[in-house]
Specification:
By secondary structure, the protein is an alpha/beta fold. It is built from eleven helices and eight strands. The protein has an eight-stranded mixed β-sheet with strand order 3-4-2-5-1-6-7-8, with helices on both faces. Helix 1 (15-28) crosses helix 11 (238-255) and helix 5 (105-114) runs parallel beside helix 6 (132-140).
């Protein structure tokens, strides 16, 4: 099982949107996906219409009260399982910090799954902070996917993530963690700003920048309120097409076996 942390300490850049829609798109391509919501806000589950009345989530596994898959829930979509967030996760920052292995707790509980074949990929939806939960995600992941909004302050956020990754490597807990990809989000083809920001990121990070760009579209914002991924809510929308392309490009980077079809972003819809 390959673990991908979708992370950026800045809020509102499309982390949960990307985690949910990339997971759904990969599942539609036949990959077995475990989506893990590490954000106490719990938006990944609600975006898929998952009701969690018993408040089952990753918290129990983090504090040693349950096995990691005991709180996994079916999503009703083929190949897609979720471990949701729950109300107790907000307190995990304090409780996990008290543990001797506080930086590697998530890595420890996920490591048995990496040797199994039940899932192809685990997608970690990280909170918008540089606290214990995100640090644990980076310590557990094989790679990090960084969604970046098409604005000038985006590069500042990326530099901080690079610093955290350097610290994780230096600590020895996950010396192989790398940036697997940078994904530009909320692209508006009508503005020079979006185009200029993409070119600036491409200039400095061309090797890891995804060709796929996620456009700004109101449909991506509407879909979670209906408990649906964008491909379920409006499969012909430019956002749905973009996330399909992202999933294909993601797999192409992993195996080179799938041809990538580029979808150029068009004005917001």
């Amino acid at each position: 099982m390959h673990i991908v942390a979708v992370a950026n300490q800045k809020g509102g850049v499309g982390k949960t949107t990307t985690s949910v829609n990339l997971s759904f798109s990969l599942a539609r391509l036949g990959k077995r996906i475990l989506l893990i919501d590490l954000d106490p806000q719990g938006n990944a589950g609600s975006a898929l219409g998952i009701e969690n009345p018993e408040q089952r989530g990753i918290y129990g596994a983090l504090v040693g009260q349950a096995g990691v898959l005991e709180n996994a829930l079916p999503t009703g979509r083929e190949n897609l399982t979720i471990i949701p967030s729950d109300i107790h996760l907000a307190g995990a920052e304090i409780e996990v910090a008290r543990m001797d292995n506080h930086l590697g707790r998530l890595r420890e509980i996920l490591s048995p799954l990496q040797a199994e074949t039940a899932y192809d990929y685990a997608i970690l939806d990280c909170p918008p902070s540089l606290g214990i939960l995100m640090t644990n995600a980076l310590a557990a992941a094989n790679e990090i996917l960084v969604p970046m909004q098409c604005e000038y302050f985006a590069l500042e956020g990326l530099s901080k993530i690079v610093q955290v990754l350097d610290s994780i490597r230096a600590s020895g807990i996950n010396p192989d963690i790398r940036i697997g990809g940078i994904l530009m989000t909320m692209y508006d083809a009508r503005t020079n700003l979006s185009q200029q920001v993409v070119e600036e990121v491409r200039k400095h990070f061309s090797e890891v920048l995804y060709q796929t760009i996620i456009p700004r579209t109101i449909r991506l914002g509407e879909a979670p309120s209906f408990g649906k991924a964008i491909l379920e809510y409006d499969p012909r929308n430019v956002g749905a097409i973009a996330y399909q392309s992202l999933a294909v490009e993601f797999l192409q980077r992993k195996s080179g076996a799938i041809k990538f079809v580029n979808a150029l972003p068009s004005p917001a819809q």
